[in-house]
Amino acid sequence: MTRETINTDKAPKAIGPYSQAVRHGNTVYLSGQIPLNPSTMQIVEGDIVAQAHRVFMNLRAVCEAAGGSLDGIVKLNIYMTDLENFARVNEVMAEYFTEPYPARATVGVAALPMGAGVEVEAVVGL
Prior knowledge:
Blueprint: E1 3-6, E2 21-24, E3 27-33, H1 48-65, E4 73-80, H2 86-96, E5 103-108, E6 118-125
Parallel strand pairs: 4-5
Antiparallel strand pairs: 1-2, 2-3, 3-6, 4-6
Helix pairs in contact: 1-2
């Protein structure tokens, strides 16, 4: 089975040696998205809520480029530099997902690229 890279201008370009996503069969593996504005490649202004919205918009753009949607996400990994923001990120996530929710892990980390407060990676079934 071959793998296919997924790229879209509607999400930030990779800031390292990786693809926005890779499709293998009917599964798409989305690289972590930080709250970069795809037009400016800068972290969005505002608090963790603004950052979380941008992250989920970026994930949606990559899902759509792969022919899927956020509804097809089966697994999310969320990385946060401050777990005090856990409830606020949950509130934002609830605006993008409905039940049944994907499986998920949330991990506190010391730092994220470009000073982001949140990063999310996902696995999508097509």
